[in-house]
Amino acid sequence: MLAIRDADRVRTLTLARPDALNAFNEALYDAITVALHDAAADPSVAVVVLTGAGRAFSAGTDLLELGERVTNPDFVPGEHGFLGLIDALAAFDKPLILAINGLGLGIGMTIIGYADLVFMADDARLKCPFTSLGVAPEAASSYLIPRLVGRQNAAWALLSSEWISAREAHEMGLVWRLCAPGDLQETAHSHATRLARLPISSLRAVKKTMTEPLARQIAEARERENRCFADLMGGPANSEALTAFAEGRQSDFTALPDGA
C-alpha cells in the first residue's frame, strides 16, 4: 500500500495501490500520515519524495469507499483519514518533493499546494474533479492553487473538472520541471539528494520562513471548504455522481431539484 525507501538522507514514499490507480482509501490516508510524521521526527531524513507506482500518481479519494461511507451507517473511518493527512502535510517542516508519474486527481493534484518542488512526467495529467462529483474544493486548494497559478487559471481548474496536461501545468506554474517519463525518478531524486546534503536545520528554517505566514489563511480556507464539503456530500449532486461512477456511466445533473 505504501512503499518506503531511504537513501542518502532522502526518504521516498511510493503510493502502492496500482490496481486502484493509487486511490486513497482510509488505510492509505493513515499510512501516508504516519509516514510523514515519522519522516519529520527522524534525524536521518532530510528530504521526502512522494511518488506513485504504476501508471498513476493518485486517482484521489477511493470513490467506491467514499460511496460506502455516505450510505453505510456502520462505516468505520481510519484513525487519521483525509483531514489527518492534510494536517500532516501542513505541519511537515522538511522539503517535500513530488514526482508525479501519471494521472493525478483530487488530492493527487491538490497536494501540490503543500509541496516545495514538483516534477511531472510530460505524459501525466491533473484534474480537480470536485464539481463533477457534486462537492467542494479540499485541502485549502481554493487558497493555495490561486497563489500558484493566478485566479483565472485556478478558477478554470477548480470549476471545470477538466484535465490539465503536463504542459499546461508547467505553463501555469503548478509544477517546476517536466521530465520524460523514464527520467522522472532520477531527476527528482537527483534534486532531492542535492538538498539532502545541506544542513537539516537550515532546510527547516527556509521552509518555516516561507510557509509560516500562510498558516492562518490555509486553516481558514480548510474550514470554509470543509463546511461546504459537509453540506454537499450525500446531497443530490454527490449522490448522482457516486451512483453514476458505481454504474459506469456519465453523471446527469440536469434534472436535479433546486439547481443542485
Summarize the structure.
InterPro entries: ClpP/crotonase-like_dom_sf, ECH/Chromodomain_protein, Enoyl-CoA_hydra/iso. With about 260 residues, this protein is an alpha/beta fold.
Unreliable stretches = none
Helix content: 40-55%
Q: What is the global morphology? A: globular
| Main beta-sheet strand count, sense and barrel state | 6 strands, mixed
Under CATH at level 1, the class of the domain at 2-182 stands as Alpha Beta
CATH superfamily of the domain at 2-182: 2-enoyl-CoA Hydratase, Chain A, domain 1
Report the β-strand fraction as a percent range. Answer: 15-25%
What features would you describe in this structure?
With 260 residues, the protein is α/β, with parallel strands linked by helices. The protein has a domain at 2-182: 2-enoyl-CoA Hydratase, Chain A, domain 1 (Alpha-Beta Complex), CATH 3.90.226. 47% of the residues lie in helices and 16% in strands. The chain contains eleven helices and ten strands. The chain has helices at 26-41, 63-71, 81-91, 107-110, 141-149, 151-160, 166-172, 184-196, 200-211, 215-232, 236-247, and strands spanning 2-7, 10-15, 47-52, 56-58, 96-100, 103-105, 117-121, 125-127, 164-165, 177-179. The strands form two sheets. The chain has a six-stranded mixed β-sheet, sandwiched between helices. A four-stranded mixed β-sheet has the order 4-6-8-9. Strand 1 (2-7) and strand 2 form a beta hairpin. Helix 1 packs parallel to helix 3 and helix 5 packs across helix 10 (215-232). The radius of gyration is 18 Å and the shape is globular.
